[in-house]
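Appendix C reproduces, verbatim, an entry submitted by the partner laboratory led by Prof. M.T., so that reviewers can inspect both the input and the predicted structure.
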Amino acid sequence: MLARLMKWVLIAALVPGMLLLSPSRQSASAAEAELPSILLTLEGIPGEFDGKDKSIKDAIVVNSFQYGVTAEAPRDGSGTAGKPEHSSVSVSKAFDSTSLPLLRALTEGRTIKDGYLYFQTRSAGQSRIYMVVHLTDIRVTGYSSSSSSQRPDESIYLSAQSVLFKYMPEHPGGGTDPNPAGEVLTKYHFDPIQAVTPKSNPYVKGFKVSLRADGTDGVPAQTRYRVNGGAWIDYTGPFEIYAADTHTVEYYSVGGDGRVEATNVMNFDQGTFTGHGSY
């Protein structure tokens, strides 16, 4: 999870009001079969996708996502870089029931309080969220549409007062190696913690973390962990971490034969992980 708060540049845009006819809502079963890689939820603007487990509902299926940051290189050997310039967020999607509400928000200059981008991947036949981006105080600052003979495609430009990135690694470094020596290895598992906004829109506010020690040849292992560099705690069951205030999680296990595992370290601010991956 990469925790980072940014100011996003506003894009000045003026789009004339237009009347659009919204298509019929996509069935949940059809949406599930597609396993979209990117979903967007915006408070007050319900989309057409509902996940199988309803953990993400009323979402907008996003075809592509674009965002960038630029900064001038230091001049005259001063070593001082220019001020970073953040682009707006650009998402492309098909014309759907959210098109008219998004245009209305743009032309009226309305602020959308919360939004979430969910990035998913498919692993072992199941979809898994690997990154969540939380946007606050969002303005729709641009809109464009193009069409051939199919349903029109749209590009939506969003600016936000702040954004928080949270990344959840699965197999850092390409996975884990076999453990022929029986060395104790601790792996983790994340379960999303769901919440709802005041307007009943769901979002992921954190994760329940489970730890499991493997490779001890049946000998019980003691696992310890700590959050944000605090005191070490004996692991007795899943614990919770939250996007707003979690920076690091560390853990290790000691086998019944006295073998001590090197500490696994998740640094969410830097987006790095040293350890044995997930189960």
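Residues 181-278 form a domain with the Immunoglobulin-like fold (CATH 2.60.40). Additional entries are available on request from the coordinating office.
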